[in-house]
Amino acid sequence: MKLEHAGRRYNRWQPFFTLTRKEILRFLRVSTQTLLAPIVSASLYLFVFGATLGERISVLEGFSYAQFVIPGLILMGVINNAFANTSSSLFMSRYLGNIVDLLVTPITPPQFIFAYTLAAMIRGLGVGLAVWTISLFFARLPWADPLAALAMAALASFLFAQFGLLAAIFANSFDALSMFTNFLILPLIYLGGVFYPLSILPDFWAGISRLNPLFYLIDGFRHAVLGVGDLPLHTAFTVVGVQTLLLFAVTAFLIGRGYRLRN
């Protein structure tokens, strides 16, 4: 719908497209840090687990260790970069005070959220695609259900884009913001089954691992890629879908009220 505004036709979606473009250009301008650095880090993981251990050990019958670990590394790149994009961008806007300029524009809270989220998803999925491309030098994946794998990766990027917005809202300093990554996201990723399946754990630790919300993302994505997993694929999608809706609802509630954005 277009309205007459200041003598010209006004597109109410223009603020959304403008903010989305701004966020995409922001991470592209520093692509060495936002794209190249995580790709290099993932390449080191791939070299260690692909070239050195890939064919020597196996934790899943019928697959090399490289094939087992690559889906987790792909999703790790998606998660880390989707979170980093929204958290760093929104926090810097709050820290520098230019968030006020954005709040006085005719942008609605849903447009605000989805503009940041879409840019984060593009960055996260782009890094995931690059990691998969590099992984082709170490192992080939069967991609049992590519549409389900894409859907799970998209959910992961959307979920952690919301988490990044929440982290940016609640963080009071750069150190506080980095704590979300170092003391929450990375431990949950490493303990979520990236490097091992739950089936090899004792029952007690396997039960504890099921409380890890990232386990369902990682196992669901690996199940879609390899065709086998610790959980049925529909269970992983159900749990991840509920997590995503809850986190989005909290984010929409806080941003809709401008919580800590005007301070």
Automatic annotation (TrEMBL):
Family, as annotated:
Belongs to the ABC-2 integral membrane protein family.
What protein name does the entry list? Transport permease protein
Record's superkingdom? Bacteria
ABC transmembrane type-2 domain ranges (all copies):
29-258
- InterPro entries assigned to the protein according to its UniProt record, in alphabetical order: ABC-2_transport_permease, ABC2_TM, ABC2_TM_bact-type, ABC_2_transport
* Coiled coil (UniProt feature): none
Q: Name one GO cellular component term.
A: ATP-binding cassette (ABC) transporter complex
Keyword Transmembrane assigned: yes
Does the entry feature the keyword rRNA processing, yes or no? no
Tell me the GO molecular function terms: ABC-type transporter activity
